[in-house]
Amino acid sequence: MKIHSIQYDTSLKQRYNPADKMKGYNAGYNITFNGSRASTSEAAVKVFNNLGKTFGDKIFRSGKFQKLVEVFEEKTVVAQALVALVVAGVLRPATNMAMAGKKDKEDSMYAAAHAISSAVIGFVVSSIVMAPFDKAFKKIKAEPKKYLTGLEKLFGVEEIGKRKLEKSLPYKKISKMAQMIPDSIVLGIPKAMMTIALIPPILKYVFGWEKKSNKTQNTENFVFMDKPVFNKFKEGGNLCK
Amino acid sequence: MQVNSVNIQKTAFSGGAPVKSKLFKPVTKKYDELTDYIAKNYYSSFYRSKFAKWFLDKTKNVKNMTTHMSAVGATLISGMYTIRTLQNDKLDHEKRKTLAINDVMTWAISTTGAYLLDGKLAKWWDGVTTRFVANYLLDNPKAKRSRTFGDWNPADINKFMGNWYEVKNKKIDALNKKIETEIANGAYKGSRKPNLHHVENPVRYKNIRDFNLDVLKNKHLTTLIDGMGVLKSLFVFGMVYRYIVPVLVMKPANKIGAYIHKKNAEKQEQNSKAV
Known about the structure:
The structure holds 2 protein chains of 2 kinds.
Chain A: E1 2-3, H1 18-23, E2 31-32, H2 55-61, H3 63-74, H4 76-99, H5 105-142, H6 144-148, H7 152-155, H8 162-166, H9 169-186, H10 188-207, E3 209-211, E4 222-224, H11 228-234
Chain B: H1 2-10, H2 25-48, H3 50-58, H4 65-86, H5 93-139, H6 146-149, H7 157-184, H8 208-216, H9 219-274
Helix pairs in contact in B: 4-5, 4-9, 5-9, 8-9
């Protein structure tokens, strides 16, 4: 809730509205509400038991988690690539390997190496490309008057200022769009093509995989290079030995 | 006084802020110029573009842009893969068609699933975010605005979002009483009497972001609350597009499809033998 300064409208353009009389009843204060009104008959309000003590609370209270949450808001594209790195680079290969039978073990290992390479390339490229864009966006947030003056009407605010923009939904929406366009729209396809081009050399020189035949996507055969580490892995040996 | 100021100037700090290396100064300067250029020529121009105005006019009811941008990005990449598959000369026509249909189906299932899951989790995630804020307030008592609201318990934040104004009004009553007593004791003679009013038309908040914006007014907390929303959406979309559909749905579906195909082929073979 905000109580603005007294506003007198001396123009003759104003039309009479009985509701305005009620608005003006509060000694000329013009009051606007931003929150949503909850009914008083709502179910019992939830109290957070053991706040700060559960496992989840300990994560929430950690500085690293809070920093991560900040990254998700301020460097959304890098955060998106980070999610891809965790999901496609760790979780997916691990599940594929666990689900693989004896017959398709090699295919699963190739798919895992492919997924890891793809996720790492995506993360590295996004982080490098987006770094100046993220810093530029930080500048906009820090000095909105310098960059956004004249856009009061578009953002539905009385004046351009940090606190005012925080409350503006149009600003929030268009900012998120502007933050994500360079990577998702402009770089999305070139990045995917670059990933496709970079995967074979990465598979060859990092993972030791080399394409044997070039039939179809589903019937591709791959051979291990003669690296003892991969032979051990292939045989199901313990790499830590 | 002058002696004192001289002494202050002479005070030397052994620690303090680290001195920036001059070696990287030209690089950091160029980088700063680049980011300034992007701020002016990309962000500012984008905000001022006709497209931005048109987009905001057309999407007044849209709130979460992270989900839509993730979906648009996935659509573009899926589209590219589908076109590449259809243009792949190494595959025969039927195979190309099957793979392209598979690409489109995967995209359609993923997009629908991601939107559904994101929507289903919205209310639960609001609760999680509120608990996250309560934990933040536990560690940052200043953010509770104790001077205005007293030392309230963050565990009761849901209740407090509904009755914060009662707490504030009680505080105002107590202050007004104190002022009255001071006036009775001869204070404020010749000066303006402080006049504290109750909160007019108070709002009972259900949403932690609105509550923070209007009552707690903590900028860092706004960033964290927004970040929690982005985290949920990106995680849901990432999981659905890259894990749930390709691993947990498509892989078993492909195996079932292959099994049915094999059975049908066997049946056809038996029928042809019988004939």
